[in-house]
Amino acid sequence: MENTNIIVSMQEMEERFTTILLKEGFTEAKAKRCAGLFTMNSIDGVYTHGVNRFPRFVRYVREGFVQKDAAPTLQHAFGSLEQWNGNLGPGPLNAEHATQSAMRLAKQHGIGCVALSNTNHWMRAGAYAWQAAKQGFVFIAWTNTIANMPAWGALNAKLGNNPLVLALPFGEEAIVLDMAMSQYSLGSMELAAMKHEKLPVDAGFDKEGKLTNDPAAILETRRLLPTGYWKGSGLALLLDILAAVLSGGLSTADISKKNVEYGLSQVFVAIDLSKLPNHSSIAGVVENIIADYHSSVPADEAKKITYPGERVLQTRRRNLENGIPVQQKVWKIILGLCDGSTDLATIKYI
């Protein structure tokens, strides 16, 4: 029964999150903004980095890995490039600040790059990509993580699955590719394991070294499968190197010495399309590309070929109209955080 979904309205979810964060000592402004970001991730169907991830965020606040009162500070500025220290503040708020700063620089220089050190998990990269793209910017961002993925051909984890997001405006919305360097994110596998479901395709190795789509077996070995095998492995390595070098922050190897994922390095790049001489024709070019893409012949007639972010729009509309589906087990934990009955130390896959 605990795996049965209940429906929670956007208003109730945001109010519950805000109440909990206020109890944890957040200012009203930070509590509401952070609650809004977690709620929006849930509305868009990214439950693994929305409602499901919220209890772990609260736990990290209590344990001091997330400094609720901290804010980013500028370390260095040179033209269109800025380095900021996140001071271990709330990852979503730090990332939103970095996104706004990158757009500010792009408005001035055409392109803006903000490298952020000493920050925390940003939850869902797509949240900031949607913000930037809907304001007319091309947006590229990535983060490193604690070591959670072996290099291709290796047994032990030395790479992070280092999520990467790319986005651009499309009509009134955006095209947004938000992906980890592993075939499935850890959050997706944790959710599937919690629901006792198998993954659609193989995503890692079991104890016998065999490829499997069993998320529980993969979480046990921590042998995630890189996207594109050696290609995803190589890209994860370069994203880590660039994040550490550009921000002056920690690498995956450094972060992994702490055994808890905090003190991450991230990069945010914004490009102001209005500065390009072909600005007036860009929308038509993108529309023609997507129209051609949509003309693909699907291998399964029951399935539509969608561009990155298109299914998010469908989920967003559905969840705004009908409410957000949340597992009873997860919502029980959220309610327990409101009344103080939840013991966060007992939570494994949240």
From TrEMBL:
<dbReference type="InterPro" id="IPR043144">
    <property type="entry name" value="Mal/L-sulf/L-lact_DH-like_ah"/>
</dbReference>
<dbReference type="GO" id="GO:0047559">
    <property type="term" value="F:3-dehydro-L-gulonate 2-dehydrogenase activity"/>
</dbReference>
<dbReference type="Pfam" id="PF02615">
    <property type="entry name" value="Ldh_2"/>
</dbReference>
<dbReference type="InterPro" id="IPR036111">
    <property type="entry name" value="Mal/L-sulfo/L-lacto_DH-like_sf"/>
</dbReference>
<dbReference type="InterPro" id="IPR043143">
    <property type="entry name" value="Mal/L-sulf/L-lact_DH-like_NADP"/>
</dbReference>
<dbReference type="InterPro" id="IPR003767">
    <property type="entry name" value="Malate/L-lactate_DH-like"/>
</dbReference>
<protein>
    <submittedName>
        <fullName>3-dehydro-L-gulonate 2-dehydrogenase</fullName>
        <ecNumber>1.1.1.130</ecNumber>
    </submittedName>
</protein>
<keyword id="KW-0560">Oxidoreductase</keyword>
